[in-house]
Amino acid sequence: MDSIILAIESSCDDTSAAVIRNGHILSNVTATQAVHTAYGGVVPELASRAHQSNIIPIVSEALIRANIHKSALNAVAFTQGPGLLGALLVGTSFAKAMAIGLGIPLITVNHMQAHILAHFIEEPRPEFPFLCLTVSGGHTEIVLVKSAMEMDVIGRTQDDAAGEAFDKTAKLLGLPYPGGPQIDQHARTGDANAYRFPGTDMPGLDFSFSGIKTAFMYFLRKAEKEDPGFITRNMADICASIQHTIIGMLMKKLMQAASETGIKNIGIAGGVSANSGLRETLIVTAGQHNWNVFIPDFEYCTDNAAMIAMAAHYKYLANDFSDLSVSPKPRMAI
Questions:
Q1: CATH no. for residue 195?
Q2: pLDDT in tens, 268-326
Q3: 229 and 261 share a domain?
Q4: Are residue 289 and residue 305 in the same domain, yes or no?
C-alpha cells in the first residue's frame, strides 16, 4: 500500500514543500527570501509574511513536479520546531487546514531530527548507531542516532551556534548576509595558518562559540587601527584562519565523541555541513581514524522539505500521528 506524504518546511527564511512516496522523494521545491539581505540577518516578521506569500505556489509546484494530485495524499507533515514562531505558524496552519480539508492524518516533525534523517534520502545511507554532528545557524549538537525514531544529544553548544559564529564574524568583516558561505568562498584562496584565534574548550562534549567572536572582533579592531586597510588586503587569509579555528573546535569534540562511544559511522548535517572546509576536514579525519563518513548532498544540507518528508515517512510507518490541537514549538529539542 502506497504512503504518499506532502511535507512543509517553514522554520526560518526558506519556504519549502516536498512529496515523498514510500520513502522516495518525488519533488523538493524551495523559495528563498532575499528580503533579509538588506538587514544583515533574518527579520522574523518579514519571514512570516514571505511564507504566507510563498506557501501556496510552492506546495502547488511540489505536487505538480511529483505528478501527484492532492486527493492521492495519505498524510500532511510539517515542521513543528525549532524555529521562528511566526514562520512556524504559517506552515502549521497550512498543514492543519489541508489535513482537515482532505481528511488525512497530520504528522509533526522535529526540524533537527529531520536534518539528521536527510542522510536517508539517497545512498549511501548510514547504519545505526551513528554519530551526527548537526551544525546550523541556530544549533550545534553531537547526536547519537540509535534509530530513525531514537536520538540522544550527547553534546551541544552552551551559547552561540557555529553557524552564528560564521555569520557574525563575516559581518565584522563587512561581508554580506548570509556570511557563512562568504567566508567559505574567501577561505578557499587563503592561508588557514596565517592568524591564530583562541577557541573555548568546554567540559565534556559541549561547545562554546561566543568567546571566539569576541576575540575575533578585538583582533580586527587592533589590526585596522595599526594598519588601515588590513582587512581588505588580507580577507582571504583572515577567512581561512577563522574558518580553520571554528572547524577545529567542531572536529575536536567529534573525535572525542567517536573515541568515547567507539562508533565509527559519522555523519554531518545542517546548513553548515555545506561548508567545503568542514567537508574536506571531515574526510581527511575519517581517513586518519578509519571512520565511515556520510555527508548529504548540498540540496539536503540547508533547510528543505525533503528532509521533513523523510522524517515524516518513518513516523508514518510507526503510526505516529498528531491531532489538530498541535501547535508550533519554537524551542523544540530533539
A1: 3.30.420.40
A2: 999 899 999 999 999 999 999 999 999 999 999 999 999 999 999 999 999 999 999 99
A3: yes
A4: no
Residue 78 binned pLDDT confidence (cut-offs 50, 70, 90): very high
Residues 283 and 134 in one domain: yes
Percent of the chain with pLDDT over 90: 90
Q: Are residues 23 and 172 in the same domain?
A: no
| 99 found inside a domain | yes
How many domains does the chain divide into?
A: 2
- The answer to whether 58 and 29 are in contact (CB under 8 A) is yes
Please list, in sequence order, all residues whose beta carbon lies within 8 angstroms of the beta carbon of residue 255, skipping any fewer than 6 positions away: 285, 289
Helix and strand totals (H; E) in the chain: 10, 10
Q: Are 15 and 86 in contact (CB under 8 A)?
A: no
Angle at CA of residue 83, ends 26 and 135, nearest 5°: 75
Query: Is 138 in the same domain as 109?
Result: no
The residue segments making up the domain with residue 86 are 4-116+301-317
Q: Looking at the chain, list the stretches that DSSP marks H as alpha helix, in order from N- to C-terminal side.
A: 44-66, 85-102, 111-117, 162-172, 179-187, 210-226, 230-233, 235-261, 276-289, 305-317
Establish whether the linkage from the previous residue to 129 is cis, with ω within 30° of 0.
yes
Residue 23 C-alpha cell reads as 520513502
Compute the average pLDDT of residues 77-88. 97
- 41 plus 107 within the same structural domain: yes
Q: Are residues 180 and 153 in the same domain?
A: yes
pLDDT (tens digit, 9 = 90+) per residue, 141-178? Answer: 999 999 999 999 999 999 999 999 999 999 999 999 88
C-alpha cell at 251: 572536529
The Cα 182–Cα 167 span in angstroms is: 9
pTM: 0.95
